[in-house]
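Journal club prep — side note

Before the paper discussion, L.F. wants everyone to see what a predicted structure for a comparable chain looks like in token form. Sequence:
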Amino acid sequence: MKKSIFSVIIFMITVLPLQGLKATDVVFNVVVPLPTYECWIIGSFNGWDISSSKKCTQIDLKRFTITLDDSSWKDGITIANLEYKYLSGPSDWAFLEKNIDGTEDLNRKYNVEATDTVARWAVTYTPIIIGPPLYITIDVLTPVGTKECYIIGDFNQWESPVDSCKMSKVFTDKDGTIVFEKRVFTLDMNKLSYRFCSGPGLDYEQSLPIGNFQYPTVTPTVTAWKAVYRTALSELSNDNVRIYSNASDIIIEGTEINDMVNVYGITGLKIRTYKSVGERIVFAAQKNEIYFVTTPARSAKILIK
């Protein structure tokens, strides 16, 4: 009997304390940008499995926390070699944290004395109920002198802007800035990202602000373009015909079938004649030249820079 009691005491002294030390609570604290609605963590502790990222607990508008039990981590992962990152939403790399300029930094290392800071999100997750695919109206405030505005984004696979991306002018403010708007179709408003161009080409993309806008940003504001798109349309009454430049091309749209379209140089010499088939006409122009384009309904002077 004495031997049995002695064995129990030895077991309690040696084995039970070891079991108590096996698990360690590891606390993560992070400050996030506004707006942030949720914060998640992923890392080597779960094998970087995006489907099993862990949701943090919100403390206030800018602070989140989470405590992880290291006994549940992947084999070989400890505080010493742990790497991790934060996400603004669950189960999708689209929500990954980024540097302020949109680049991605190295994985984080754990520091028990430090509070992590997220500069920005690639996409900010918005925990709203997603219904069926839908159209969303997006407005943008553009700089003085903007003639046209186009929108591109994940809804068109970020392809170069075409006529279907052209926005409608809503009004001009007292300071000369202009508001444009466009309805776009999206499968998931939580992941809708977009940016703007002042003309039908990527040469006219916004330069400020850097990065993309994301729904539901209220009235995004563009303060500068890479290049300011200038139309050179005459004031003739037929608004169906458009003559404009796109980088080094002159584009004529909206003519009737069999309309004769002529392109002249600055000296008045005819360079090219087209017989319209009712589709767009593209003339490959030379840079630093002035051209005159005539159609039965509209004429225009185009400067190619």
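L.F.'s comment for the group: Residues 8-22, 232-238 have pLDDT under 50 and may be disordered. Keep this in mind when we get to the figures.
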